[in-house]
Write a structure and sequence with these properties.
Distance between the termini: 20 Å
Helix content: 40-55%
Number of strands: 13
Oligomer: single chain
Bound molecules: nicotinamide-adenine-dinucleotide, thymidine-5'-diphosphate
Radius of gyration: 20 Å
Structural class: alpha/beta
CATH class of the domain at 2-192 and 230-255 and 299-317: Alpha Beta
Order of helices and strands: EHEEHEHHEHEEHEEEHEEHEHHHH
Strand content: 15-25%
CATH superfamily of the domain at 2-192 and 230-255 and 299-317: NAD(P)-binding Rossmann-like Domain
């Protein structure tokens, strides 16, 4: 049986990954370790709560003692690090927590894994550590050169405190591979969308606001471009890289699905309006607001390496994925309200009888 330790498994991509693993593999154990910040919600995982192959432990990846105890008790084959502060706007407001969680947390996790896994002869057996990173580490592309893409060899040139912290963590992961021979892998993915994304990010925020007839805040001229990938395709890519990727390598993951923000917003307006039969949901809700500081103009991923080496390609077209996402959000209005209202903490206390203890492993 393969044991995955997934950090940040109560967040958007992490919870989709936990659900994906339990669907895709019978002979598996999945241990979800999450600090449950505002972005982590165990409600995402209520469908697998009683699955004997799944366990949740509340802990902070910066806590060396707790993480060492968990690794010691669970003996995972793979560690997949999703845990992070992930919102660019928050990183502009408060960069320090991004350095602490994304850089410090990653280094702590690397140290704990190394201490648990390194044999006296310097080998690491079959263990693997995968760092879930982002295309934002590469910086920005321009709209004037639409044929230029980020490759794995593109130099890291981050602009926001968020992307600087992710790039920095990637450098540590690479360094632990080079220096200590650790079995590390890095994936750098483009923007994800799909169920369970916290409604501070573009797509779920616009769906939520459209439903409530609230203003849809578009930064700057709305022409910034992101390369959107349905979250399940990202989950499949991570699992594939973990199992079959070459150690020490970076794999880009992306959808070749570049769209300007304003086009995304207009698509959401049209689809939500159609589904709710509500003509008041229209382009009049669009409100251009002050641009984000240091706003990267364009992201575009060259994912040919993971395609040619591992046979991965995106399976969900944007047309299908955005409809599935909108339908999910319309059917889960309570989830949206609870994660945005603080009601989630009340739910947790009711379910577990306490605010959560660090791993009692
Ligand atoms: P998210 O904000 O939805 O979830 C982050 C999770 O990490 C939450 O469950 C949170 O409780 C947990 N967490 C935060 N700090 C922690 C700590 N100190 N210890 C333990 N757990 C902690 O983020 P997401 O969008 O799911 O992104 C997951 C990862 O994927 C991040 O590393 C992010 O950089 C990367 N990524 C995201 C995207 C995207 O489009 N969302 C794209 C590429 C890469
Ligand atoms: P976001 O979802 O925050 O992801 P990232 O910044 O990591 O790419 O933002 C996606 C794009 O949408 C980005 O160009 C900023 C823009 N945006 C808006 O125009 N309005 C908003 O309210 C938000 C949250 C984002």
């Amino acid at each position: 049986m393969t044991c995955y330790l997934v950090t940040g498994g109560a967040g958007f991509i992490g919870s989709n990954f936990v659900l994906y693993l339990l669907r895709a593999h019978d002979d598996v154990r999945v241990v979800n370790v999450d600090a449950l910040t505002y972005a982590g919600n165990l409600e995402n995982l209520c469908s697998v709560e009683d699955d004997p192959r799944y366990a949740f432990l509340q802990a902070d990846i910066r806590d060396a003692e707790a993480m060492a105890a968990i690794i010691e008790a669970e003996r995972p084959d793979y560690v997949v690090n999703f845990a992070a502060e992930s919102h660019v706007d928050r990183s502009i407001e408060d960069p320090g927590i991004f350095e602490s969680t994304n850089v410090g947390g990653t280094v702590n996790l690397l140290n704990v894994c190394r201490a648990a896994w390194e044999a006296p002869d310097g080998g690491y057996g079959e263990h693997r550590y995968l760092q879930v990173s982002t295309d934002e580490a590469y910086g920005t592309l321009s709209l004037e050169e639409p044929d230029a893409f980020f490759a794995e060899t593109t130099p890291l040139a981050p602009h926001s405190p968020y992307s600087a912290s992710k790039a920095s963590a990637d450098l540590f992961v690479g360094a632990y591979g080079d220096t200590f021979g650790m079995p590390v892998l890095i994936t750098r993915c483009s923007n994800n969308y799909g169920p369970y994304q916290f409604p501070e990010k573009l797509i779920p925020l616009m769906i939520r606001n459209a439903v409530h007839h609230e203003a849809l805040p578009v930064y700057g001229d709305g022409l910034n471009v992101r390369d959107w990938l349905f979250v399940e395709d990202h989950c499949k890519a991570i699992d594939l890289v973990l199992r079959k990727g070459r150690l020490g390598e970076v794999y880009n993951v992306g959808g070749h699905n570049e769209r300007a923000n304003i086009d995304i917003v207009k698509t959401i307006i049209r689809l939500v309006s159609e589904r709710l039969g509500d003509p008041e949901i229209n382009d009049g809700l669009i409100t251009f607001v002050e641009d984000r500081k240091g706003h990267d103009r364009r992201y575009g991923i060259d994912a040919s390496k993971i395609g040619s080496e591992l046979g991965w390609r995106p399976e969900t077209t944007f047309e299908v994925g955005i409809e599935r996402t909108i339908d999910w959000y319309l059917a889960h209005a309570e989830w949206v309200e609870s994660v945005t209202s603080g009601a989630y903490q009340a739910y947790y206390e009711q379910m577990y009888g306490h605010r959560g203890a660090a791993a009692d492993a």
